[in-house]
Amino acid sequence: ASSAPARPARSARTAHGAPPAPTGALADLAAWVDEIAALTRPDRVHWVDGSAAENDELLRQMVDEGKLIKLNPEWRPGSYLARSHPSDVARTEARTFIASRDEADAGPTNNWADPDDIRATITPLFAGSMRGRTMYVVPFSMGAVGGPLSHIGVQVTDSAYAVASIGIMTRVGAAVLDEIAAGKPWVKTVHSVGAPLEPGEADVAWPCNDEKYIVHFPDTLEVWSFGSGYGGNAILAKKCFALRIASVIGRDEGWLAEHMLLIRVIDPKGRAYHVAAAFPSACGKTNLAMLRPTIPGWRVETLGDDIAWLRPGEDGRLWAINPEAGFFGVAPGTGESTNVTAVETLWGNTIFTNVALRPDGDVWWEGLTDQPPAELTDWEGNPWTPASGRPAAHPNSRFTVRAAQCPQIAPDWDAAEGVPLDAILFGGRRATNVPLVVEATDWTHGVFIGSNISSERTAAAEGTVGELRRDPFAMLPFCGYNMGDYFAHWLKVGQKLRFDRAPRVFQVNWFRKGADGRFLWPGFGDNARVIDWIVRRLNGEAGAIDTPIGRVPRTDELDLTGLDVPQRDLDELFAVDPQSWLREADLTEEFYDTFGDRLPAALRAELEALRYRLGRR
Ligand code: GTP
Ligand code: MN
Ligand code: MN
């Protein structure tokens, strides 16, 4: 890249000042940045180089401005707490739009907007929206810079919190500009918190706007996000780009962008297997990604905890990378007894959002320890004691930390070519019906299972199939195009794989409950016992029983050494009730009908075959 044209200077230059005359693709980038600046009218433009010095300065400024609280370095070195506005705590699905030219391309599961109409709506909102603020220009790569599965983008934003978060979650810096200079296509992402400052007006700790728009333009590969500072709405590289836009690119280029964790499992003989798993939000991806097996001789190396990009290789295998460089994980429920790996990962250099603050300057959240501290400051900044009767940390409070800090991260986790997948797992929170583990009979059956992922709310929906929330492939909020086309794309990708080298597909369910409402399966580290069966299936070393919904282990095939699960619970964990499954099949038909002729015939055939096996002839 030594012949690359001069890249724009890093240091602040005014929006209307003379750029350093780059040429070619970098000139296009500079012109685009000028265009956004002319619209949003920031006081300054800052090209982010991703250096440690720059990051330190950014964090110091945010502390000075009251936007971050520096945690006590004795307990949590290099770490900060951000408190959001109480209204800006999560992704805003109702304000998230897919603005495809053709409404049918957004499909029945997305909010569609006409691209011209929505541009006309949001452009006035962005006009002058960065007044009084700095506009940061952040070039980033998803996947190792220059890697064969990697993609690049640029985010402009007026949020320093977003810049610091993107710095943790992606690869930021000058090497990305070299890629742009060399002609690699890049995705344009624009973010404004929508809170311009009048001259002399004091800033607030978490600027945002009541009006929010997260708009994706799949035809021009653009994202425009207005009004929110929350990670999922503000770190545009993550859900907006790496899932919604990337799923569209993947559709056109023959690969898949998925809401999946990625791990390497090493068995007692030292053999390594690669597993990806899609579970809906808050259904255990980060936990499984950091699994500590309870059975001797097994090890898990973490590769990713939220997003995987999968591409068929020349060798007929499905290759996967984690395009991210960090974890943006749910804090509550993360503790020594559930996910000690995550707790160790968070030793320092972490940005926490909406957790509670201890008097000693460290953080706390529900589930970190069994007993809460006697006093805390809650996520809204109010005094809190265990008698307060409300959570101290927001239920969607999060940590943002570099992947490299995970004690069991795979040594080659950022290898550009990725890893070849041996198994794909689909799961959700199901109190009933779905066994602990089921093996699909082939790829098409696996796609059928993925298309039917659903989750129950633990208290309300118990036992009633009618209260299932469908979340196909755990992608309901993240698929950037028609979900029916997406199912077809999964089938097509399968055809590019060699039949004996394609990953085998399994459905898992850690959440099945007994009649008394208690989990039948201990979960967490003991999920390694399910992985063990899956791996032995891959090797032809474990038997299975055919059921109408797929293959389940004989219970004596699961390694339950040292585990105290009564036989009655095991029987219930694997029970397949034809009547409930037939009712579920009716719901599947209703769901499938919403896709009209975009639903692949092969999936309808799977549904009819399932009904036949369940006894409806
Ligand atoms: P996003 O990051 O939002 O996409 O979600 P995620 O899939 O990473 O969810 P996460 O791992 O943070 O899920 C956490 C929730 O699932 C917590 O309430 C955990 O206690 C629970 N959980 C995870 N694994 C298990 C398990 O094996 N058994 C049970 N019973 N609960 C589990
Ligand atoms: Mn997620
Ligand atoms: Mn997670």
Task: Give the total of beta strands.
Answer: 31
Averaging pLDDT over every residue, what do you get? 93
Share of helix among residues? 25-40%
Tally of DSSP helical segments? 16
Strand content: 15-25%
Bound molecules: guanosine-5'-triphosphate, manganese (II) ion
Q: List segments where confidence is low: pLDDT < 50 over at least 5 consecutive residues.
A: 1-19, 458-463
Q: What's the Cα radius of gyration?
A: 24 Å
Through-space gap between termini: 65 Å
Q: Decide which structural class fits the backbone.
A: alpha+beta
Overall shape: globular
Largest sheet: 8 strands, mixed
Plain-language structure description:
With 617 residues, this protein is of the alpha+beta class. Helices cover 27% and strands 20% of the residues. The chain is built from 16 helices and 31 strands. α2 (52-64) runs antiparallel to α5 (160-169). The radius of gyration is 24 Å and the shape is globular. The termini are far apart. Residues 1-19 and 458-463 have low confidence and may be disordered. Guanosine-5'-triphosphate binds next to α9 and β17.
